[in-house]
Design goal:
homodimer, Multidrug-efflux Transporter Regulator, Chain: A, Domain 2, 5 helices, DNA-binding
DNA sequence: GCTTGACCTGGAGCGCGCTCCAGGTCGCAT
DNA sequence: ATGCGACCTGGAGCGCGCTCCAGGTCAAGC
């Protein structure tokens, strides 16, 4: 069975698979990046080749790629993605994969929280500039510095 | 005049200013990075020096640095921070600074939104691993791929 | 049969953002 | 006066993640 747990695959995949160009478009990477990832061992296996030695990406490959992109876009390093790939090639490593994912999740959440706080500071800053320009005109003693309060007491 | 709009400065600054080491600690950067930023023109001015040619960071400098860190941590490039610094050195550029900040804000918000969606996918993935390991045991045909659905219809 | 364009491989190059190093100075404590 | 640690400058080096290039093959359309 090996059903790939993907309700909505990123794109319709014909039986003979997608060319590297189409696959790249489908997952939002460049052709070069796709080849680079393969070289770096981030794929479960090198993409299967057709008669002429060209890569053909099946649903399976596309599914993995979509997940890979998700990990990369949440800031997982190439090295850590490789760890996931290495684990995923071996059966019985589910617990370890889970650990990697959970650790990653923690980092993502922490990072979002920090960004959220910085965004609040940015908003305050923007508001002060808006007030300055909207109030009258920019005063000669301009509001210096891109700063603003960040968090509460330190 | 020239009040720096900082309710809560990041740290208490003695009248003679902070050494580069203390300033670095205060804003969470390395000493090298602080010197690098100065070299790159990200500060409003090179930090003032004491008799022996050593940098002394005043409240003003610390305030700018705090803002700079906020911009960097929300993903603004060195180049764009330099633009902000260049603008902030000239009076009457408030509107332009506002544009830069607003554009940056848009990017940050978009980025957070993408991360939020990816995080949801990550959570689904984690849940499926938890179910697999908790349910019974990892089945031989293990849940392949770090993937999962991402967004709804494309 | 020929052109065109997408693809192949191996490897070099690059932009970013630091980080480190060599060789030296300063100032405080012993 | 002598150490010591923190600081100085200019410049080299580096890790990451691609991106580009040369030189070649292959398949399809004209």
């Amino acid at each position: 069975m090996s059903d790939v747990l993907i309700p909505a695959p990123p794109v319709a995949v014909p039986p003979q698979g997608l060319s590297i160009g189409d696959a790249a478009r489908a997952v939002g990477l460049s052709v070069d990046t796709l080849r680079y990832y393969e070289k770096e061992g981030l794929l479960l296996d090198p993409a299967p080749r057709d008669g002429g030695g060209r890569r053909r990406y099946g649903e399976h490959d596309l599914a993995w790629l979509a997940g890979l992109v998700m990990l990369r876009e949440t800031g997982m390093s190439i090295a850590d993605v490789r760890v996931m790939a290495d684990l995923s090639r071996r059966a019985g490593t589910e617990a370890e994969r889970l650990v990697v994912l959970e650790r990653h999740r923690e980092r993502v959440v922490a990072e979002m929280e920090r960004t959220r706080r910085h965004l609040a500071a940015l908003d305050t800053k923007i508001a002060s500039y808006r007030a300055a320009s909207g109030g009258y005109d920019a005063s000669p003693h301009s509001p210096h510095s891109p700063d603003d309060q960040e968090e509460g007491p330190r």
